[in-house]
Structures are given as C-alpha cells and as structure tokens.
Design a protein that fits this description.
The complex is a heterodimer. Chain A is built from 28 helices and two strands. Chain A is mostly helical. Classes of the chains: A mainly alpha, B mainly alpha. Chains A and B meet through α4, α10, α13, α15 and α22 of A and α1, α2 and α3 of B.
Chain lengths: ~700, ~60
C-alpha cells in the first residue's frame, strides 16, 4: 500500500462523518423522551459502514490479504463461461448479496428488540465491522487464492483431514437446527391464519406452472416468467383476503400448528426429491425477486417516512427475564443476532460460487466486505420495523402464549404490568387492521416484522385500507423464502447424509432407495426439532432460536479460526489479530451460551434444570403445564436430553476446532517458511524486489 | 445517446437479475467458446439455461438463513 498524505478535504469529509455518526449514536443512547426518530439510527449505521469500508476494509485488503489486482483469479485462469466466469463487480455483488441475504437478518433483530433497540444496534454495527464482514471478506479472498475451493476443502488442506471431518459434522448439525427453526417461524406465522395459509399454498401451483413453462416452452425466458409469477403472487394476496372473509373457505385453510408442522415436513420431503426444475428452482426465482424487491421497498419506506421508534433504547429485560427469549444480555444478545452481525453460514456462500466469478482481486473488498455491510443494513431495518410498533403490541405478539394467554384482556393487563401500557381494544384493533383474528403469541419475528413493515408501507401507500394487504405481503415474502431454504436445505442435508453413509458403507450412497432413506433421515432430523418446538409451552422459538444462534456463531468461529491459521501459515501473524479478535469473541459467546443452556439452574434457560423439574413431577405423579399426561411429561424430559446432547455436540465441535487451530498456528509459527497452500502464482520480479 | 445509455443500463440490470438466479451471461459464454474453443459448438441458449439450473440446484443450492 502506498502511503499518501491525507488531503484537507479528505480529512474534513471523513472526520465530519465520524463526528456525525458518533453524534447520532449519542442521540440514540441518551435521548430521554417518548420516541426518537429512526433517522438517527439510519445515519449512525450509514456513517459506521462508510468509515469501516473506507478504512478498515482497505486495511484488510492492502495489509492483511495483500490483494493484487494483477494476480489472476480462478475466473480468469479457468474461464469456462459457466462456473468460472470473470464477472462485473457490481453484477457479482448482486449475486453474492442475493445469496447471503435471507430470513436470518430479519428475525434475529426483531427478537432482540425485547432488550430495547440500543443493545441490538450496537452489536449489529460493531459485529459486522469487526467480525461479520471480516469473515466474509477473508474467506472469499482465501478461496479465490485457492482455486475457489469450499470452506470444508480449505479446512481439510490447511488444518488436516481430522479438522475437516469435525467441521462437516458441525455443518450438518447446524443445517438441521437452522431448518427446524425456520420452519417453526413459518408455522407460527400461518397457524390459525387462513389468509396466510391460502397464499402460501397457492404459490405451489404458480411455481409448478413456471417450472413447466421454463422446461418445455421457453427455458431462457426466466426473467419474464418470474415477473409474471410475482404479479400473480400479488393478486393471490388480494384473493387471500377474500378467502379469509368467506367462512366456509376460511375453515378449510385454518390449520393448527401441529398440522402445519406435519404438512411442512411432507412438503420438504416431496420438494427435495422431485426434479429441481419442477418446484424448487422456480420457487427460488420467485422468492429471490420478492426478497430483493421487499428489501428495497423497506429501505425506501423507512427513508421516506422516517418513522418514530416507540421501543425504549434499553428495557428492563436486559437482566435475562424477557418473555421472547430467556437469558441475559451477555451472551444471549450476541447469539440471538447472528446474521446481520456475523453469520457462519456466509462462510459457506463466500467459498461457493462467488469466488469462481471474481474477475480481479481488487473487486473482493466490495463483494466480500461490502455485501455484508448491505446485509447488516437489512438487519438495522428489521430492528427499526420492530421498534416502530408500540412496545405493548410488540410484547403481545412475541411473548409465548403460556405467558400472555390468548385473551386480549388478560394479555393487555399482564403486559401493562411489565410497564408497557397497552389496552385490550388496541390489541384487537391491530389484529383487525391486519386481517387476523388475533396477533397474540406470534413469536418468531415474521409477524412482528410484517406489522412493522405494514405500518411503514401503509404510511407511504394506501393508508389503513392497505394495511392488511401489506401485512400479508410481508408474511408471504418471509414464508416464501423460508420454504425455499427448507427444500434446498433438505436437499443439501440429504447429500451430506448420503456422503457420510458412503464413507461407512460404500455403495449405500446412490440409487433411489438411498435417496429416499437419506431424505427421510434429513427431514426426520429437522422435523423432530420442529415438532418439539411446536409443542413447546414457551412457543419453541424461545428454546430453538438460541440453539440456532449458537450453531451459527460456532460455524463463524470455525471459519475465522481457519482464517487465523492461514494468516499464520502465510507468516503474517503480525496482522492475524483481525481474525483472532472475532474468533476469541465468538468462542467466548458460544461456549458461555452453550454452557448456560445446559447448566443454568434457571429452568427457563438450562435444559438440565428444566428436565429435572419435569422428572421430579413424574416421580411425584404431578402434571406440569403444558403436559396433560405422564407420557407428555416424559416426552418433555426426552426433548431436554436431546437438546443437551445437541448443545454438547456444538460445544465439542467448536472446542475441537479451536484446539486444532491453535496447534496449526503454533506449528506454522515455528516453521520459518510459508506453509499456506495457495494456488501457484509466479510473482513478477518487480514485486519480489519491492 | 440517451437511448443507448438506457438500453445499456437495462441490459446490465437484466444480467444482474439473471446471475442472482444463478444464470451467467449467455453471450459471454458464446464469445468465450468462439475464441478459446472454436471447434466446440456452444450449447443453445435453452440448453445453457437448463445446464445452469441443474448445476445450481442439483446438489441443493446452498443459501443463507
């Protein structure tokens, strides 16, 4: 990196931006009054992103990875026009962003809003700058230097086959819990909602129609077909309102949570076994466009209306007694918001198709670091949407049914008792405005976000008349791309199961029976946790989201461990702190959270304490809610034990990977030579002399 | 002049949208094949799409949460 003297205008601009960002954060933190405008949150976030991209990302690019615009990338070396294609950096940014953005950054911040908007904001901003974007960028850059290899491959070659296998077990486990928790969000949103259930069900014939058209009529007309599909979806949302208004039809589409859970499992099984062109791919096309369109619309809506935030900056629930998820600010805030701050899943995406399409290394800062900043902005928008609601309404929607009951009168008095005043009429009126019978006990993010988005959108377009339409639009959009993740994820998991089976008994890996059995195992694994979540008295999200957060942060810790090891093997340990710092933080968070989930004496947090409570009930013959029979009591104890085993597995995986990482780094430090295995590159002479 | 600029922008947007769906630029593929492997006939536009779709989703198509 050439050192240039800072210019006066540059100093003024960046200094001014730093002052503006700091002042906005100060206003958010110290404002005392009824509401504070979302503008300050937006300004604080944008200033943080700009400064981080200009200075820290540049430092990473120039000093840590030492990007070299002249060094050929896999796309140029192996250009085949299909997998390896040098691609314009902005086009590739779009591809990468569409691949990393999903339901995660929308749900986590909504759940974390129970502690107020300030803790979530600070973690989203600090996390993305120092951990999330660093991970995405480093993994992308290291993959580009290794022929576009996957994360698993890189772990195997840089840290050894044992570490590689441990990491793949971790990835499979995180997939299962991810799919379960996403499916649970859909169930929570659609239970007893004929409008939502109808629109989601009707997306299937639309997708199949698109699939058939693309297969047999005009395969390359994918953009036109998708546009028609999106228009049909919008008509469907309107039609859904009619269905919900008709008592006979509404009855058909009013389903209970357990029924929906079973239907989702049947769907996941079918969709992942069918040919991909029939259902899976066209559904992905629809959800991709709906996703990008909604994110853009949300950004526009917030920018135009600049809504007031009704949620206080910090609530009393930072002490860990919150109804949405149990556990105190440290460590549970840091695992509740994963995507948006740092998400291990991105490491899989950043070492997937993107590194095979980068035309030059100098594009990687925009694609790796920049796209993650954009994803973080989505998380900030979700936090704004949740904070736009009256806190009373927020807690009515997100507190478990066992806490607030299904009756608006009792719920309003309980929530008002927490200090968030709300009247029963206000709850009923809000449900009515969004076209639902009730909004109580709809944890999981999607409905809250939908009400927030509907509030913001209806201020821009349509007013109160369109509120119900916007609500169901938001539900459709979330449910649609969650279902896409569900079928694609089941397919990925099925192949992983087949690979593991093939390792043990060669020959078991392929063929129709193997496919069916492996799919059955994959669906059964996430279906078990889904069903457990549906039956959970605390609403399931309360139990499962922390497990998902732990798993996702664990994967990030693994990816960042790999990055640290590679920096040591490159003999760049002086700058390895950029990866070591977030690795250490994530390790502390996941290990503490995991240990608390198992060992905490509070039954709301600790699985052991929870199991003990029910075991004691079984011993004395008493029934504890929600169990109605001794059999259900035993089921609850069994669920706790399964959750303990899973959490212990996560802890074992992350500890093992950390030990492997430390050993590999120490060995690399003792070795005087560069031992990292980058793709060969003859350095031009002038560089060696420089 | 304005027309060309608009057309170029639209083309760029369409290319971005297609790649979001996992379909790289077909013209670039044909150009590449013509210059580097002149003896190898390129896939048709439709076959190219079908091949890309299978490549993206065949193994599941990993995406984020």
């Amino acid at each position: 990196m050439q050192h240039t003297r800072p210019t006066l205008s540059g100093t003024l601009i960046w200094g001014g931006m730093a002052v503006l960002g700091a002042a906005s954060l100060g206003i958010l933190a110290f404002h005392r009054g009824e509401t504070v405008n979302a503008l300050w949150l937006v300004v604080a976030a944008l200033c943080t992103y700009a400064i981080a991209y200009r200075f820290y990302a540049k430092y990473l690019a120039a000093r840590v990875v030492c990007l070299d615009a002249g060094r050929p990338t896999p796309a140029t070396l192996r250009h085949d026009g299909m997998d390896y294609v040098p691609t314009n950096r902005f086009v590739l940014f779009g591809h990468h962003f569409a691949a990393i953005a999903g339901a995660g950054p929308l749900v986590g911040p909504v759940l974390a809003a129970q502690m107020g908007f300030l803790p979530g904001t600070l973690w989203i901003l600090a996390g993305v700058v120092l951990a999330g974007a660093v991970q995405d960028f480093l993994v992308l850059a290291f993959s580009v230097r290794r022929d576009g290899r996957s994360l698993g491959d890189m772990i195997r070659t840089e840290m050894g086959p044992f570490a590689g296998t441990v990491a793949s077990v971790g990835v499979l486990a995180i997939m299962m819990i991810l799919l379960a928790v996403l499916a649970l969000i859909v169930v929570k949103a659609l239970a007893a909602s004929p409008w939502g259930t109808f629109t989601i069900a009707a997306t299937m014939p639309i997708a199949v129609g698109m699939g058939l058209y693309l297969r047999f009529v005009r395969p390359s007309g994918v953009l036109e077909v998708s546009a028609v599909g999106v228009v049909l979806l919008l008509i469907l949302i309107w039609l859904g309102g009619r269905v919900a208004a008709d008592p006979a039809l509404a009855h058909v589409f009013t389903l209970s949570a357990p029924t929906l859970a079973l239907l989702l499992m049947a769907y996941g099984f079918t969709a992942s076994v069918l040919p991909v062109w029939l259902l899976l791919a066209p559904r992905d096309y629809l959800s991709t466009f709906l996703k990008i369109g909604t994110i853009a619309a949300l950004a526009l809506g917030i920018a135009v209306t600049l809504p007031a935030l009704h949620m206080p900056p910090v609530t009393r629930f930072i002490d860990g007694t919150g109804p949405v998820f149990a556990g105190s600010l440290f460590p549970f805030l840091f695992i509740t918001i994963a995507c948006g701050s740092v998400s291990g899943f991105h490491a899989l995406v950043a070492s997937g198709t993107t590194p095979k399409m980068a035309g030059t290394e100098s594009d990687l800062r925009l694609i790796g670091y920049g796209a993650m900043l954009a994803e973080s902005a989505v998380a900030i928008m979700a936090l704004i949407a949740a904070s736009v609601l009256q806190p009373g309404a927020y807690f009515a929607m997100n507190a478990p049914a066992s806490v607030v009951t299904a009756d608006p009168g009792t719920a309003a008095s309980i929530i008002s008792g927490w200090g968030f005043a709300i009247t029963p009429d206000a709850l009923t009126a809000l449900a009515h405005r969004v076209g639902e019978a009730t909004i109580l006990g709809r944890a999981g993010g999607a409905p809250t976000l939908a009400v927030g988005m509907a509030t913001i959108f209806s201020n821009v377009l349509g007013g109160d008349r369109l509120m119900a339409f916007w609500y169901h639009f938001a539900i459709l959009f979330e449910a649609l791309f969650i279902l896409t993740t569900l079928d694609a994820g089941t397919r990925v998991a099925r192949f992983m199961v087949q690979d593991f089976a093939g390792m043990v008994i060669p020959g078991l890996a392929r063929g129709l029976p193997a496919t069916v059995i492996a799919t059955f195992i994959a669906v059964g694994a996430w279906g078990y946790f889904l069903y457990q979540g549906v039956m959970d008295p605390l609403g399931g999200i309360n139990t499962l989201w922390p497990l998902f957060g732990i798993a996702n942060q664990m994967l990030a810790a693994i990816a960042l461990t790999l990055c640290s090891v590679i920096l040591f093997k490159l003999k760049r340990q002086r700058v390895a702190w950029v990866a070591l710092l977030p690795t250490a933080w994530l390790a502390v968070c996941t290990l503490t959270a995991g240990a608390e989930k198992i060992l905490s004496p509070n039954p709301a947090i600790g699985f052991l304490a929870h199991a003990d409570r029910y075991a004691a009930g079984i011993a004395t013959g008493t029934l504890l809610a929600p169990a109605h029979t001794q059999g259900q009591m035993q089921q609850i104890v069994l669920n706790d034990h399964v959750n303990i085993a899973l959490t212990a597995l996560f802890l074992a995986v992350v500890s093992t990977m950390l030990v492997c990482g430390v050993r590999a780094a120490l060995a690399a430090r003792a070795n005087p030579h560069v031992t990292a295995r980058e793709a060969a590159y003859d350095m031009p002479l002038r560089r060696q002399n420089a | 002049m304005i027309c060309r600029c608009v057309a170029k922008t639209l083309d760029f947007a369409a290319q971005t949208a297609r790649l979001m769906l996992g379909v790289p630029d077909y013209d670039a593929y044909v150009d590449h094949l013509r210059t580097v492997h002149p003896n190898q006939p390129p896939l048709t536009r439709d076959a190219f799409f079908a091949a890309r779709q299978q490549a993206r989703f065949g193994a599941g198509g990993l995406r984020c949460c």
